[in-house]
Write a structure and sequence with these properties.
With about 190 residues, the chain is mainly alpha-helical. About 55% of the residues lie in helices and about 5% in strands. Strands 1-2 form a two-stranded parallel ribbon.
């Protein structure tokens, strides 16, 4: 089984036999064949209600989510779906994955306390959603400004410029995003 979350849809072979050159004559029957199941995140049909109440789909939707509110809604659904006592280890696995993989990727450099239960994840998200939303917007602005500067100034963009953008507050970023329209050098963006 392959869980695939790449941006382009899966195009590679799904059987090992497709990766081996054809054998001559009667040897063809000895060519190994083994199919594997592809779970392609990009192929998830968000309109199929049956597919949405599915743990793999919930994981994919969390990875694709763009807001802390969407993650919180999915955590609430997981709490409801996984409430049976025999699902304790699965609840914990989701909580650990959210805590150690999903949230750190969404909020690099942010301190996230260790959480081992989905209920704790939901409570923590409820408390910090507004704070994180602002930080995500600021990170998005910084990334957008850096992309624009790279495209406009190329090699003239230095590590010092990148550092200055990374350390800027929201107000400065908004001014600099407007400045890039008329700036002729990277330094002019910051004036």
């Amino acid at each position: 089984m392959v869980l695939y979350n790449g941006i382009p849809r899966w195009q590679a072979a799904v059987d090992v036999s497709e990766l081996i050159a054809p054998a001559p004559g009667s040897l063809v029957r000895y060519r190994p064949s083994m199919r594997y199941l592809i779970l392609d995140e990009g192929a998830l049909d968000e309109t199929d209600q049956l597919a949405l109440r599915n743990l793999a789909a919930a994981l994919f939707r969390m990875e694709k989510s763009r807001s802390p509110q969407a993650i919180r809604q999915l955590v609430k659904a997981l709490i409801d779906w996984l409430k049976a006592p025999e699902q304790t280890s699965l609840r914990r696995a989701f909580a650990v994955w959210i805590n150690r993989v999903l949230l750190p990727n969404r909020m690099p450099g942010m301190e996230i306390e260790e959480i081992r239960d989905l209920q704790e994840v939901e409570s923590m998200l409820a408390e910090r959603v507004a704070e994180w939303t602002g930080e995500w917007k600021q990170q998005g602005r910084a990334e957008m400004l850096l992309r624009q500067m790279q495209k406009k100034f190329g090699a003239a963009l230095t590590d010092e410029h990148r550092k200055r953008v990374a350390e800027a507050d929201a107000d400065a970023l908004l001014v600099w995003i407007e400045n890039i329209l008329t700036a002729e050098t990277p330094d002019e963006v910051f004036h």
